[in-house]
Amino acid sequence: MQNDPFRIRDHVADFDQIVQDIVHRSEAVRATIPMTADIAYGPDRTETIDLFFPPGKRSGLPVHMFIHGGYWRMFSKRDYSYVAATITQAGAIAVIVDYALMPKVRMATIVDQVRRAKRWVQDNIADHGGNPADLTVSGHSAGAHLSTFLFNSDHTPSNVRSALLLGGLYDLKPLQNSFLANEIAITDEEVASFTPLAHRHDPQTRAMVLVGANETPPFHQQADRFKEHLLQQGSSVISLVLTNRSHMDSVRDLGMPQSQAGDCLAKLIANDDR
Fold first, then answer.
1. What domains appear along the chain, each with residue ranges and CATH number?
2. What is the pTM (predicted TM-score) of this model?
């Protein structure tokens, strides 16, 4: 499919270099920041999380969950350890989540997995020095999509204080006509069940909706629509276009506290995102 706005590598000239860079940054973080790896939140081998800890006493610390992207079909938590650099510098425990990939599993399985990862955090993070009542989340691309299912709620509080959603996918219908049709073949049922724009979300969860200035038009359109969707539901929303940033360098920036995206993440964790 020519000129597909969802095929990221066609629109980011240094796609492969950025991927290689974040892998190297992740290796460095795993070698330097205290961590506990591969904690199971479920029975499947893909159902694991890595915890990274800030320096100092581990008691009552804020907790931040990050969910990676890759169009639900690629990457793993190990590729995104680098985000923990910003999270731990902000004084929080970083929870980097792994999940199974499409097309081996379907989207319902992945959504259930990230929800169970959140449940594990709420039930167990105090044993690791975290405060389950001070939980924030973030995700990029498909990870932003999945993050919305951690605070969508019709009747009960989600207990997620704030969510940072970067370069997210909030309407799945257009993806059925993208290059992904040949890779993961999103079904009509998945569009109906797992399009965030079709869901109610907890208005007590503050949202930060970010998109890179150099993203293709659908990402800007979806960010604008989801922001309005949340506002109509009574949520507090901050929206921001990241200066001179693409789909890929914007997520790399999450691991750089001095960057625009990294600063947003640090402020979210510090409860300075109002």
1. 8-269 (3.40.50.1820)
2. 0.97
